[in-house]
Structure formats: structure tokens, C-alpha cells
Amino acid sequence: MAGHSKWAQIKRQKAVVDARRGQVFARLSREIIVAARSGLPDPDANFRLRTAIDKAKAAGVPLDNIERAIAKGAGTLGGDADQMESVRYEGYGPAGVALLIEALTDNRNRTAADLRAAFNKYGGNLGETGCVGWMFEQRGVITLAGPIEEDALLLAAAEAGAETYELTDDGAEVFAEPDQTDQVASALESQGYIIQEAETRWQPTTTTLVEDSDLGRRVIRLLEVLEDLEDVQSVTSNLEISDALLAAG
């Protein structure tokens, strides 16, 4: 959890900058496609789709783009809709850090080539499926907006059927079994909590501590480059940054 928590903090700090990038509409549209494929293409019956749509609207994604993404996910758009497929890639970054990448693509060769180029540039290796997957597990993660009163959340999470929770600087993350994510999110929402996101996320079961500043910067740069690739939906690593390196920036 340490690697995830520290990397999550870094990602939150980058959020304002990332929101200005031209790829944000495409990325959010792809999130909607994935969410629509994971359940019913109806936001009232699919919590993940509803939060993905809310994120897209908040970022200014046009309604036409949102509706087209839902139709693609539902397979009703025609054309290239059926060519989109979810693919998982695995590999190692500098210092032996394990990376798991999820992509949504209509061209596996292009996506693999883009990933391989990024890995090679920053001293990593794109591996075969399964080479690092055993170091990760899937969990349902419900992100709550703060302020959060911990005693109340403890009771609410237990009643909702959650496994555990973790307080953050701006709220909390509640963890659940992957197939219970929507159910737990709905239960928490009914108790008055503000749900920012409900998703299934890969998390490391073991971490790789990086203390060398040069290697640490290369790993973080590789993570940033991978996340910026058009076809990439998510990047998870088992990176754990030493406190001294994190303090040094």
C-alpha cells in the first residue's frame, strides 16, 4: 500500500497540470467506454459509468462526445466500435519496479510499439503477460470527498460491506471486493457521502523501494510518459519511494 499511497499523492499533485493537456477529452471518453462495457450502459444502473460521466462533464467534455462514448461501450455505435478492446500489458521499469498497464485500443500493434518505445527510453522492459501480474491484486476503490469523520466512516463502511478504508488529504478511499464496488458505493452515497469515483483498481501486494535519486526520477518519468499515451487507461506500479527521496522532490 505504501507504494500506491505515495504515487497517488504525486498523481493528485499533477492533476491540475494534466487537466490542461489536449488528451484529456479522449482519456475521459475512454473511461466512459470502459465503464459502459463493465455493466449496463445506463448511468442510473451503473455507478462506475455515472461517475465517469460526471468527471467528463466537470472537465467540459461535450455532451455529444459523452453520448458517443456510451454508445461505443454499449456496442451500438457501429463502425469501429467493435474494434476497441481492453488489453493488459506488463513489464519492469528502472530498479526492477513492476508495472501493470491497462489500455483500450483498436490497434494492438500500435499500442505495444508505443509502450515498448517508452520502456526502452527510460531503461525498462516490456514483458510477457503474467511476468509481474502475480505481484498485483484487483480491488474496488471508492473515492470519497472530504471532510471525513473517521468514526462515522468506520461504521458506514462496515454497514456498506466494505473491506477497509484509508483517509487521504482530501477525503478517503474505501476498499471493497471488485464485484461489490458499485453496491458499496451506492450504500455509502445513500448515507450522505459524496462519491468522487468508483472503480476497480490494481494494487501491489509487494513493493520495490527505490532510494537512488536518479533511478527514482527515471521511474517517475516513465510512469508519466506511459500515462500520457493515448491508448493507456491506467498505470499501476509497485514503486515505493524512500522518504528522503520524496522530501528531496
Strand tally is 10
Order of helices and strands: HHHHEEHEEHEEHEEHEEH
Q: The CATH topology of the largest domain, please?
A: Alpha-Beta Plaits
Which consecutive residue ranges, at least 5 long each, have pLDDT under 50?
none
Helix content: 40-55%
Helix count? Answer: 9
Overall morphology: globular
Per CATH, the superfamily of the largest domain is YebC, transcriptional regulation domain
- Average of pLDDT: 85
Structural class: alpha+beta
Largest sheet: 4 strands, antiparallel
The proportion of strand residues reads: 15-25%
CATH class of the largest domain: Alpha Beta
Distance between the termini: 20 Å
Strand order of the largest sheet: 3-1-2-9
The CATH architecture designation of the largest domain is 2-Layer Sandwich
Number of folding domains? 3
Radius of gyration: 18 Å
Describe this structure as you would to a colleague:
This protein folds into 3 domains: 82 residues, Arc Repressor Mutant, subunit A (Orthogonal Bundle); 93 residues, YebC, transcriptional regulation domain (Alpha-Beta Plaits, 2-Layer Sandwich), CATH 3.30.70; 70 residues, 2-Layer Sandwich (Alpha-Beta Plaits), CATH 3.30.70.980. 45% of the residues lie in helices and 24% in strands. It contains 9 helices and 10 strands. It has a 4-stranded antiparallel beta sheet. A 4-stranded antiparallel beta sheet has the order 5-6-4-7. It is globular.
